[in-house]
Amino acid sequence: MSSLGHVYLLEGDYEQATTLTEEAAALLRARGRRDGLEFVVDNLGWAALLSGDYERAEALYEESLMLCRELGDKLIASESLEGLACAAGAKGHAERAARLFGSAGALREAIGYLQAPRESALREPYLEAARASIEERTWQEAWGEGRKMIFDESISYALEEKADG
């Protein structure tokens, strides 16, 4: 169910993606399963983000990051960090977005994960808009700060910082 929900997400059917993914989350929760739940919650975050519900997306990404910290899941953490970056940029917090994009990219590189083109395409408009909203030097500095963060620092920053700081 979660995989099918992910396919619908990538195809742009956010309503169907949400329906299937919420059902998958309910089944995992009912069975007390925490492993796998981080992926499902992250996908719900993407469906919310792409539907324009930034507050819900942020809450879902934060839940996913807490699970990722607990489970040591760096791959899904990179996805949730990037989702928070998109939401931050959409809400006008470009420096925060830059740090989160930098952190997510460095984490993904560290584990050797190459994002699929369809996944990258979902993020690109948010990244471009956030980057265009501030001076390039400011973007590069914040992005560089994010790239220097290690796994736990990235998650702490994402969960504790709510605006540019």
Order of helices and strands: HHHHHHHHH
For the sheet with most strands, the description reads: none
Question: At the first level of CATH, what is the class?
Answer: Mainly Alpha
CATH topology: Serine Threonine Protein Phosphatase 5, Tetratricopeptide repeat
Strand content: under 5%
Figure out the total of helices.
9
Mean pLDDT: 95
CATH superfamily caption: Tetratricopeptide repeat domain
**Helicity level:** over 70%
The strand count comes to: 0
Query: What CATH architecture label applies?
Result: Alpha Horseshoe
Structural class: mainly alpha
Can you give a write-up of this model?
- The chain is mainly α and 165 residues long.
- It has one domain: Tetratricopeptide repeat domain (Serine Threonine Protein Phosphatase 5, Tetratricopeptide repeat), CATH 1.25.40.
- It has 9 helices and no strands.
- Helix 6 runs antiparallel to helix 9.
